[in-house]
From TrEMBL:
InterPro entries: Glyco_hydro_beta-prop_sf (IPR023296), Mannoside_phosphorylase (IPR007184). It comes from the Bacteria. Keywords: Glycosidase, Glycosyltransferase, Hydrolase, Plasmid, Transferase. It holds the Pfam family Glyco_hydro_130. This is Glycosidase related protein. Belongs to the glycosyl hydrolase 130 family. It comes from Asticcacaulis excentricus (strain ATCC 15261 / DSM 4724 / KCTC 12464 / NCIMB 9791 / VKM B-1370 / CB 48). GO terms for molecular function: glycosyltransferase activity; hydrolase activity, acting on glycosyl bonds.
Amino acid sequence: MMSTPYMFHPVSDMPYPVDQLVLTPDDIDLSRSPLAGHLRAETFVLGAFNPGLLRLQNGNLLMMVRIAEALREPIVDGHVHTIRWDEVTQTYGLDAWPLDQANTADPRKFTLAGGQWKVMALTSLSWLLPVELSPDGTRVLTLHYDRAIAPAYSFQCYGVEDARISRVGERWLMTTCSVSPERHSTTLYSSPNGLDWTFEGIVLDHQNKDMLIFEGLIDGYYWAQTRPLGALYFAYPPGSDWRAGPSINLAVSKDALFWKPFERPGLRPPSGTLIMERMGGGTPPILTPQGWLTLWHGVEPHEVVGIYRTYWSLLDTHDPSRVLHTEITPLLEANAELTRPIEHQMYLRDVVFTTGIVDSGDHYIVASGEADLACRITHIPKRVFVFE
């Protein structure tokens, strides 16, 4: 029997047994960056965050960390600059935009004036760094700079972002967001061991920030959560349980390369509350005795960026469009105590962005980006996700 879709229950198990930052910008050696030696300008690590997560065959964990590398002085001579990969020259360079045409209120990006639609550029370029952790995720063992994933195609010229990693059968599948003026697409990589990745191609051609492949097939098909974005959303009828806006949709595929949107909706933002005015996927859904467990983020409007929190849902084992339970008491919130030692590097607050999960016996190990700045590891007991 299907439960009420949205329930308020207190989470009595917090604080969790382990909840700590394991990687910060100071841990990154930019002399080993893919950008090293390409630019006549100093760069710094704006953030080392939003890690995909998997367990290697040796028992250690591996985070695929987004490194946002930014210009130390982006504004020079009345212009704001961006870093861009050029596929033709196979090098990185700088583009300059007149400062009087740019809105730089958000430290992560700037919007450009003029035109009939929103146009923006990034203050950093992102690449992915594999970081090996101890089996419990609390200690960094190795930073695999030699296996970093950097832009390689014109549709990645502004960076490769936000890895999400799923184990399906005998291989790992990793979705990433590739950013360029051509398109804002979802790209796929595969690996037999979690360390050596092969580029498989573009799998979603529209703007989509959070594609999460289910960790397992359903009736022989791959399933995924998607979150297509747009500038226009049509209103639900008055009195509806749902709010118009970004939601978590579903798609199916025979081969993980060609995806068909599923006819029924997935998770939608509820009406009557602003804490989830918009929402998006977090961790790849994993199968539990009660159904597919998925962690996702909800955003409450606040200042420029908003307040990001992590929530969770259980989806039907055979039909993930059936939402069995959603808990809208936050599972994770931003933790100022964790970021206090790196307070001097903070440029955002109230943001936790959960991106990875691994089964670890009686608990899950959950990886998140904290404040778009650092990597956070949290151990969450499995009993938190049980409902009656």
